[in-house]
Design goal:
Number of strands: 6
Helix content: 25-40%
Largest sheet: 6 strands, mixed
CATH class: Alpha Beta
CATH architecture: 3-Layer(aba) Sandwich
Number of helices: 6
Distance between the termini: 22 Å
């Protein structure tokens, strides 16, 4: 893995965008990778714009900014529309409950109905971010170890550990 791996997760406040970035970057650190994480958000507490940028590499990282994401998780229409143009070779995971994908993009786009699955299988939309993290971890299986990602996720999410593990496993099984 000599090259850098870039992950961009974006949506609106309350969807767990920051938690996904925190868990992925912590898992990368546990695996001995150089890692950076940037977050940005609007002034709103909930419902406003949120973005996590994670960069991982076996070598020192020159810039923490995600410029060409290998993985982009779009959890809102605004996020998808704002960042889809950055993805030239990577994969976009999007929630079709929020996003209508651009059929003209030349990259792989994977629908993941995380919000509806969280409500249907676990009773609460709250677990959608763990479903996304599981699916993303499956795509990143050659880079991050699944058990380490789960460990990092549970360290960053203070409650509902059993439900979050179930949600993660659900997301992991879908891809």
């Amino acid at each position: 893995m000599a090259k850098r791996t870039e992950v961009l997760v974006s949506g609106f406040g309350g969807q767990g965008v920051v938690r996904i970035g925190q868990a992925l970057s912590l898992a990368a650190v546990y695996q001995g990778l150089y890692t950076t994480m940037l977050i940005s958000h609007g002034t709103e507490t909930r419902g406003g714009y949120v973005r996590s940028q994670v960069v991982m590499s076996e070598e020192p990282i020159d810039s923490p900014v995600v410029e060409n994401p290998d993985y982009f998780c779009a959890l809102s229409k605004a996020a998808y529309n704002r960042f889809k143009h950055l993805v030239s070779h990577g994969v976009i995971i999007y929630d079709p409950g929020y996003v209508e994908p651009d059929p003209h993009l030349k990259v792989k786009q994977i629908p993941l109905n995380a919000r509806d699955l969280a409500e249907e299988k676990l009773g609460r939309e709250l677990f959608a971010n763990a479903i996304v993290m599981g699916a993303l971890s499956k795509l990143m299986a050659g880079l991050l170890d699944k058990d380490i990602v789960i460990k990092a996720m549970l360290e960053r999410i203070p409650r509902f550990h059993e439900e979050n593990k179930k949600a993660f496993e659900l997301g992991y099984s879908l891809l």
